[in-house]
Amino acid sequence: MSNKIIYHVTTKGEWEIALDNGFYEAPSLYAEGFIHCSEEHQVEGVLKRYFEGKAPLIKLVIDPNKLNQRLQYDFSPKMNDTFPHIYGRINIDAIIEAIEL
């Protein structure tokens, strides 16, 4: 697996639910089969495209080496870029930091 840290943006409410559950899951896991993540240089674009005007937000800092689920980089033709996707719930211990935005 990659050693490169990846990120996922979520709401504070969804993060609080994850802490209670002991794992994080996003609606996209059921709708698309994976949780969308980003590399550091992609986070700003994700915030502008999907989270404009939404608050409070949390940026999850994820260590791929600690994931219990498959991490795969998939090409997005719409964005002409490759993004990391996690194919399953994110175990809490893989999230090394939660940063309020």
Automatic annotation (TrEMBL):
<dbReference type="Pfam" id="PF06108">
    <property type="entry name" value="DUF952"/>
</dbReference>
<protein>
    <submittedName>
        <fullName>DUF952 domain-containing protein</fullName>
    </submittedName>
</protein>
<dbReference type="InterPro" id="IPR009297">
    <property type="entry name" value="DUF952"/>
</dbReference>
